[in-house]
Design a protein that fits this description.
Layout (H helix, E strand, L loop, with lengths): L1 H5 L3 E7 L12 H15 L2 E8 L9 H11 L5 E3 L3 H4 L3 H12 L5 E3 L9 H34 L11 E4 L4 E4 L1 H15 L5 H10 L24 H8 L7 E4 L2 E4 L8 H17 L14 E2 L6 E9 L5 E9 L13 E2 H14 L4 H48 L5 H28 L4 H13 L9 H10 L6 E3 L2 E3 L9 H13 L8 H16 L3
Parallel strand pairs: 1-2, 1-3, 3-4, 9-13
Antiparallel strand pairs: 5-6, 7-8, 10-11, 11-12, 13-14
Helix pairs in contact: 5-6, 7-8, 7-10, 8-9, 11-15, 12-13, 12-14, 16-17
The protein binds zinc ion.
Length: 540
Amino acid sequence: MFAQVAQKIRYFLYVRKSTDVEDKQVLSIEAQIVELKEFASKMGLEIVEIFIEKQTAKRPGRPVFNDMLHRIENGEADGIIAWLPDRLSRNSIDSGQIIYMLDENVLLDLKFPHWWFENTPQGKYMLANEFNASKQYVDNLSVNTKRGLRQKIRDGHYPCIAPFGYLNDVRTKTIVVHKKNAEIVRQAFGLYVMGDKTLDEIADFLFSRGIKTHGRRKTKNDPKSQGGNKWHANRVKYMLSNPFYYGHFVYAGEQHEGKHKPIIEKALFDRVQAVLCNRGKVQKLPTNPVPLCRLVRCGFCGCYISGAVKTKRQKNGNEHQYIYYRCTHKHKTVRCHEKEVREFMLASQLVTILQSLAMPRNWGDYMLERLATDELVTKNESNKVRAVLRDERDGLLSKIKRLFDVYLDGDIERDEYLERRAELMSEKKSLESKLEDLARDSGFWIEPMRQWVKTAVSLCEIGADTPHSEIAEVCRKIDGLNPLMKDKNVVAFGDGNIKSPLKNLWHALRAANQKPRAERGADEEMSLLVRLTRLERAQP
Ligand SMILES: [Zn+2]
């Protein structure tokens, strides 16, 4: 201890300024350095070197900071001067490291102009508290920002740049109609709905009204400015299918009801969607010559079965084209002997598999009805629970208010007040998270289940005449189907893993289908359905 006092402590000066929102109030780096140097000279502290960091301290891994600690470990200095503890760390790893270095006497002292640190157990305790506070500050801030955004979306405010035809009103932070452009949007919808205009022609129309891409601005290196071109057909399509125009908006893949003023009637929008859809079918994409490629895996080596078109020449000079599918034999360690198979053979086996998974239409109707009822019941139940929780929360709020009155009247001590208040606040917080969870989770399994039933019923349509590309598409829709080919035989659910609940449903359905319909009594059908619906309820 005496040795340490006798030895003059050498300090590193550490300044940090990041672009974080929470650091807005902090002095600039230059100002920090000036003030800290002045502070050091007043206190008679020796500064060995100045470290300047421009990264956030929210996460560990600041290069300059790490370099500084490393050099302290090497004995080049034994103290740090900084503006405030939060300059040194806003995350638990860096905080821990500083305190550890103090414990080990590698670091002997910290100095801040506006915060007193003493290298004693109490001093370290205070420092740890201060670090925690700045970490919590960061945590709260990011939670608050997210919560604010969620609230904004729930309130129906689109949190992004307004689409064409609207403007972001910076003053009120809402989205307002751009009168002139909204009229152009209406005309574009009106033109397209007639059905005789292409997307490109709509782009021409927009261009004639002065609507074009941004173009290039004049810069030093590029003195020519460019006017901007007409919109690409895709951009026109995006505009014509944006639900924003009839009052909804899509954010993070979810559609929300917006507060902004619609400029297109929903009916017109729907008719435009129908035209878009039909048009898409008219301009056919080039068909895939090997539609069943990369759909089935090889039962020997696990590689995908791929397709190839082969031409055979007959003796009389006629040429015939055949499509073959075979294992790519690309496995590095397994020598695979799976033979090739003609496309119609593969397709007919897949059709058989799909048919074995088809759900009879009357079952489908029954299950969809059940789902609708379930949805209603779940919604009602969740509404009831939420009403109770909301009442409880309101009760807590008034308790908190009353507690404050009691405290103001001087009936309880400040410590007791703070303690009781913290308890109530924490209870309120848990209630609120429960409410949030309920709003999110109630009946979340119903929609996937409905899609599953629809897919299962749609398999009734599959037959020998179904186009092969459609067979491939349907197979890909079935969760975990995983068809495997071994000795030219295709089996479904090849991996034997039936953990996924939807896959379980497919298995149950197939088992139910295995008995010919004529042999099933009405009772038996009903019990199968009950089994299916039970499985459905077992969804996580
Ligand atoms: Zn193989």
